[in-house]
Amino acid sequence: MHRILIVLALAILLLPAPPSTKPAAVRPGTLLVTARAVPLDSSDPDRRRVGTLTYLGGWQLGSDNPGFGSISSLLVDGPGQILALSDAGVLMGFHVGPGRASRRPFIAPLPVRAQDRDRPWWSWDSESMTHDPASDRYWVGFELLQAICRYSPGFARVEACRTWPEIVAWPKTGSIESFTRLPDGRFIAIGEMGMTADGHHDTLLWSGDPAEHDTADPIHLHYVAPQGYRPTDMVALDDHHLLVLNRRLTLQELFTATIAMIELPAHPAPNTELRARTLARLAPPLLADNFEGLALSREQGRTILWVASDDNHEFFQRTLLLKFRLD
């Protein structure tokens, strides 16, 4: 059974285009999500620690809406208010855990520019998302399009898009999975399969908004991932420290993931190495799946880390949402 699952998973991850099981265009509407609590360790339900993280709770999510799932990135506002983005350009807003929701649950496609309306729905392979709380603007990285787009508050409209030759040089199906905005206004992206000559992951650091056409060219850095892993998402703790979610797929363990920290120098020179320091590893018997989404929030002065999995709309995968305290 393991071999069958690994072949299916590899086929999904390596497909040059989205699998046919993904839903076609989604219409805006109310989203009803179920959340079933899951233990961190099935063999020890009381376990709460993994590396430097404390497990605060986790859920297996589901919905009757065919557009729900395949989460590739997410943002969290307050205790359990989730904004998730699928790899088919679908936004999902919902609440999990204790407390009351601050907005109505919804599902809606990303807005598109008039000149882009003839593109097929599956080409909007949105793999990364970041946000500026001051302006309330959002940025999304598209893998197949190899573009970065900026959206107005509330995702009301597309404000700007740009395709960078540095990103076009990366493989289309292993491109801008990890992308975030630093608090000082810089942006950084790691190529999942865009490799440097020394075998590390090509990393781009912009001094300003990468969706604007007058932004200067980025400098190239080198992300040194944990051995055998590839980056799938990234968030900034501050201007100099970032957390990177990394994924691996093997015959022995199927999906495993690590959460690592990298330190960004104040004035990095081109080709500076950013070495991952692993904080935690998610592998059996702990919860393990195709983890692709990473987000930070604050609760009562504590830093909260959220991790989400991409189920690829496949029967043998799950949509998991895990909540940790960063100690």
Topology diagram in text:
Layout: H1 2-14, E1 29-30, E2 34-37, E3 49-50, E4 53-62, E5 71-77, E6 81-86, E7 90-95, E8 106-109, E9 126-132, E10 137-142, E11 147-151, E12 158-163, H2 165-168, E13 178-181, E14 187-195, E15 201-206, E16 219-224, E17 230-236, E18 241-250, E19 254-263, E20 273-275, E21 277-282, E22 291-299, E23 302-309, E24 319-326
Parallel strand pairs: 16-20
Antiparallel strand pairs: 1-8, 2-4, 3-4, 4-24, 5-6, 6-7, 7-8, 9-10, 10-11, 11-12, 13-14, 14-15, 15-16, 17-18, 18-19, 19-21, 22-23, 23-24
CA-CA gap between termini: 37 Å
| Secondary structure tally, helices | 2
**How can the largest sheet be summarized?**
6 strands, antiparallel
Name the beta content range: over 45%
Could you say how many structural domains there are in total?
A: 1
Q: Would you identify the CATH architecture? A: 6 Propeller
